[in-house]
Amino acid sequence: MSLKSNLHTLKEKYKGTKMAPAFNALHTFLYLPNEITHNGTHIKAADDLKRTMNTVILAMVPCLIFGMFNAGYQHHLALGTIESAQGFLGASFWTWSNLVVGMWKVLPLVVVSYGVGLAIEFLFAVIKGHEVEEGYLVTGMLVPLIVPIDLPLWMLAVAVAFGVVIGKEVFGGTGMNILNPALTIRAFLFFAYPTWMSGDKVWVHGAVERAGTADAISGETILGSYAQSQEVVYSYADMFFGIIPGSIGETSKLLIILGALFLIFTKIGSWRIIVSTLIGALTMGLVFNGVVDAGWISSSSKFFGLMSVPFWQHLIIGSILFGAVFMATDPVTAAQTNKGKWIYGFLIGFISIMIRVFNPAYPEGVFLAILLMNVFAPTIDHYVVQGNVKKRLKRLKVKTT
Amino acid sequence: MGLLSKKDAKLITDPLADNNPITIQVLGICSALAITAELKASLVMGIAVLFVLGIGNVVISLMRNIIPSKIRIIVQLIVVASLVIIVDQVLKAYAYELSKTLSVFVGLIITNCIIMGRFEAFALGNGPWKAFLDGIGNALGYAVILLIVGFFRELLGSGTLFGIPVLGDPIEKTGLYSTGYENNGFMLMPPMALIIVGLIIWVQRSRNTSLIEH
User: In percent, how much of chain A has pLDDT > 70?
Assistant: First the structure.
C-alpha cells in the first residue's frame, strides 16, 4: 500500500478522535484528499491558504539560497582564505565551498524553526480539536532569514516555542494573531539573548568563538559602523546586491525586490504597504538629512553618523526592505483598508528610521516598528472606516435636503 | 480546622486560588510586574503587603461605624500611609539594600488597588476578626503569585534563587552553563512578568473552567 492510501486509512480509522487533525494535516499537506464534494455550489478558487503561503515561501527561497552563499563567503573572507568578490558576480562568491559552509549553518536553523513550530501547531490542533492550519509555513521560513548565522539552535527553539504560543496560539491560532509571529520570535531573541543578536561578533560565522583570541574577526554591520561614526568599507553596489554581513536572508536587496515583484504580481503582497513603507523611510531620512544640512547638530553628536547617511541609502542598509516586503505585508497583522494600508506602511517606515537613528541600543528598528504598528493596525482601520461612514452620511444629508 | 469556622477559613483560602486578587480580580498588577525580578524582593513585598493589609483591615473595621462615608477614602489613605511608612522605615533600618531595590514600590503600596479594594469591599462591612482573616488571605494570595512569578523570573533570568546560584556560574561556565545554556535577559524585564502572570491565569482557568468570564 502506498503512503497515500495508508494515510487515508489512518484518517478514516481515527475519524472523530483527538488525533484526527494531525493525520488530516499530514494527508492534505502531502496529497490531494480522496474525498470529493457531491452536491451544492462551491466557490472554486485556486488561491487557498496553502497556495498563498507557498507563494510567499517561493518568493523567499532566492533570499535563503543567497543567504547561504553569503554566510559562507563572509566566513571565508573574514578568515582571509579568499579574495574579495568585487561585485555580485565575483568568482569567489558563487563557490561550492561557500555554499557548503552556508548550508551547514543555515539548514539546521530552518529545520529547527519548522520542527518546533509545526510540532506546537500539531499539539494545539490536537488539544483544541481543530484542523492544523498552514499559518506556520511562512513564519517558519521567515525566522531563519532574520536571525544571525551563529545563533545557537536551542535559543531558536525556545524563541519559536514562545513566539508560536504567546504570539499566536493564545489569540486563537492562524488568522487571529495581533502580532507577526516571526517578529515576535525575533523580538524575544533580541531581548532574551542580546549578545547573540547584536554587536559586531554575531553576523559572521566563526566570529563568536574567535572573539578575544589572536584570530579574532569582526563582522560589523553597516548600521553598526555608522552608529559608531566609523568609515563604511562597503560600496553601494555591495549593499544593493547584499555582499555584506547581516541577518541571513535580508542582505540582498536585489533578491528582495525580485521577491517583492513576484508577490505584487501574484497579488499576494500589498503594493500599497510596500510603497508606503519605503516612502515613510525616505521621508524620515530626508528630515534627518535636513537637520544635518541646517547645522542643527554638531558632528560630535552620537547621532551624527546615522543622521548624515544620505536618505536613499537607508533603503539599502539594514533590513527595512526585507521588513517592508515580507513582514509588513502579512495580511493578518496589517491594516485591512486601502487608506489604512498607506497610513500603516508610512508609519512603519517613518518609525523604523527614527529608531535606527535615535536609539543606539537598537541598531535596527524595523522589527520594533512593525510590531508597534501591528498593534495599531486595527485602530487605524477603525478610524478609516468611521471616516468613510461620516463622509457618506454627509453626502446623504446633502442629497436629502 | 478547629481554630476557624468553615466560613472563616474560606476567607483565607478563597483569595489563594479561586478569588485570587491578581489572577482573578486583576488588581495589584503594577507592583507584580515591577519587583518580581528577584525572589527576595517578591518575598519582602509580599510580607510588607501582608503587614499593611492585615493591620489596615482591622483598623478600618474597628473604625467603620465612626467614619463619615463622605471622607472614608481619605481616612483609608491615612491608615494605609501610616502603615506603609512604618514598613518603609523598618526596611531602611534593617534591610537597606533591599529597600533600595524595592525603591518607590514600597511607597506605592499605598496605591495598591488590592488594599483599597479590601477596605472598601470588606473591612467597611465586617467585624475586625473577619476583616483580619480577609486581609491575611488576600495578602497571601498576592504573595503567592509574586513568589511564583519571582521564582521563574529569577531562575530563568539570573540562574539564581534568593541570590544563590543554582544553575552554575555563567562566567566560569560551570554546571548547566557548560552545555551552552545562557540566562534569558528578557525574564528580567517587566513585560515577561506580565506574560508569566498571563500564563498563570491561563493554567488556572483551564483547570477550573468555571472561572472563565464570557
Answer: 87
Per-residue confidence (pLDDT) for residue A33, from 0 to 100: 62
> Torsion angle of alpha carbons B189, B190, B191, B192, nearest 10°?
70
Which of A154, A166, A192 minimises the CB distance to B185? A192
Helix (H, G, I), strand (E, B) or coil at A182: helix
Chain B residues within 8 A of A154 when measuring between CB atoms: 180-181
CB-hemisphere CA count at 13 Å for B6? 0
Q: Residue written as cell 481543530?
A: A130
Which among A166, A170, A193 is the nearest to B185, CB-wise? A193
Check CB contact of A216 with chain B, cutoff 8 Å.
no
The Cα A80–Cα A74 span in angstroms is: 10
Q: What per-residue string of b and e applies to B7-16 under the rule 16 or more CB within 10 Å gives b? A: ebeebbebbb
Set of cell numbers at residue A183: 517578529
Q: Is B180 on the interface with A (CB under 8 A)?
A: yes
pLDDT, one tens digit per residue, over B143-186 is 999 999 999 999 888 888 888 888 777 777 777 777 778 888 88
- Put simply, the answer to whether B184 touches A192 (Cβ < 8 Å) is yes
Residues 184-213 of A with CB under 8 A from B: 188, 191-196
The residue count of chain B comes to 214
A46-62 residue pLDDT tens: 667 777 888 888 888 99
Q: Does A358 touch chain B (CB under 8 A)?
A: no
* Tens digit of each residue's pLDDT (9 = 90 or more) over A209-240: 666 555 666 666 777 777 666 667 777 788 88
* Domain-wise residue ranges, chain A: 50-257, 269-401
Poorest-pLDDT segment among A22-26, A38-42, A176-180, A306-310:
A38-42
CA proximity to A175, closest of A233, A228, A130, A116: A130
What global pTM score does this model have? 0.84
CB A235 within 8 A of CB A316: no
Segments in A193-325 forming alpha helices (H):
194-197, 207-210, 222-227, 236-241, 253-265, 271-293, 304-307, 320-322
Note the pLDDT of residue A78. 79
